[in-house]
Amino acid sequence: MRTIKTIEGTYDVLPGREGGNPMLRVEAWQRIEEVIRGVMRRFAFEEIRTPVLEKTELITRSIGALTDIVHKEMFSFRRGKTDYVLRPELTAPVMRAYLQHHMGSRGGVRRLFYMGACFRAERPQKGRFRQFHQFGAEIIGTDDARADAEIIGLLAAVYDAFGIDDVSLRVNTLGDPGARPRYVEALRRYLEPLESELSDTSKERLRSNPLRILDTKSVREKELLAGAPRLIDFVGQRSIEFWSRVKGYLDDLEITYTEDPFLVRGLDYYTHTAFELESPHIGAQSALAGGGRYDLLAREIGGKSDVPSVGFAAGIERLFLALEAQEAILPGTQPLDVFLVAQGQEAMRRVLRLGMDLRVAGLRASFDLDGRSMKAQMRAAHRARARHVIIVGEEELDRGCVQVKDMETGDQFGLSFDSLAAYFLGV
Length: 427
Ligand code: HAM
Known about the structure:
The structure is a single chain. By secondary structure, this protein is an alpha+beta fold. It has helices spanning about 25-40, 55-65, 70, 90-100, 145-160, 180-190, 200-210, 220-225, 235-250, 295-300, 315-325, 345-360, 375-385, 395-400, 415-425; strands spanning about 45, 55, 75-80, 80-85, 110-120, 130-140, 170-175, 260, 270-280, 285-295, 310-315, 340, 365, 390, 400-405, 410-415. The strands form three sheets. An eight-stranded mixed sheet has the order 1-5-6-11-10-9-7-8, sandwiched between helices. A five-stranded mixed sheet has the order 13-12-14-15-16, sandwiched between helices. The chain binds histidyl-adenosine monophosphate.
């Protein structure tokens, strides 16, 4: 029988793997998560965790039935009478949780963050997976333009904390929802005479969702779009004023950005602010993060009133690529405080107890479970980069003591069982 491997577009993250791709090393993930959590804590964002599994309806109603995600990238299935989906993102689930648990009932704004796996049935390539991981943040319950700037400032602070500075931030306003249908019509009218020059995908989008054509990577299509109508010209006066406030606050925070009138994002729930953070060093999938304002999402999923909100999400795999591009060193295996080596049956039994005691007392300790020779156990201690080795031999056992070897200095000396804790923990 063939051995079963991971599904294409997914991967295992293993412990103790030195060198190679840090994305496949659990210690590197732990470090990345720690840095992200540290920044979120400083910004006073609270963590929220929602299920990986949601009702399909939540995603179709929020992200939009005509988007790529819903149209062709959902991992969904039916069980009994319910349609389930593996979440492709977390903004809709977080809003669902906010409404379900009346998180706004005590008044005030909620600042939330999350980290977790998402699923999209895309064609896997560099920086694009079927199970990928996002971290993100949402400010829920305010239409204050300062929140838009705060969210973008938070996003910038995370990449700053990793020392990633070669990034570009593109921003745009999608305006009020009333503007969009009129703009879509204008764009369609502009593109229809040019249809024969469009790619097959864009031809299809011209009918289903013309806004998506603005995202094109094709140079020819970009040229064709140069004279296209711009969304900003369809947006009402209040939206323009809101947009100037957002930009003013971004200037206050000294955040550098470029305005891109064709930035529309691939999810339907946005209104007003939209943005994307890109890196020139991570290949064709250059978006590190994206986000924006989604004032009407709450109603789309059954909320009784509007809940104005703004947020971002970022791909952790792409963060790894950006770190790799600047040759950042991510931590490898953590060294052990102590490795216990046993010689003989009785010593093996003693090592179990001693090892457990040292762990409970707060040391990082390990020992062999394979019944290997002393030499093999010493090799394992080296591999684990143990700072000390405790050798429990038959002779020592009779005398109620052990040999301790300091692996840095090479010094070796005897200690009684009773004085072990005092030696290692200074008690
Ligand atoms: P999104 O642009 O669809 O936005 O995804 C955010 C980020 O997730 C992308 O910029 C990218 O780094 C990463 N990403 C997306 N798909 C993949 C994939 N297949 N493989 C690897 N990484 C991927 C959202 O998800 C919105 N919920 C953002 C948001 C939050 N808007 C408001 N609040």
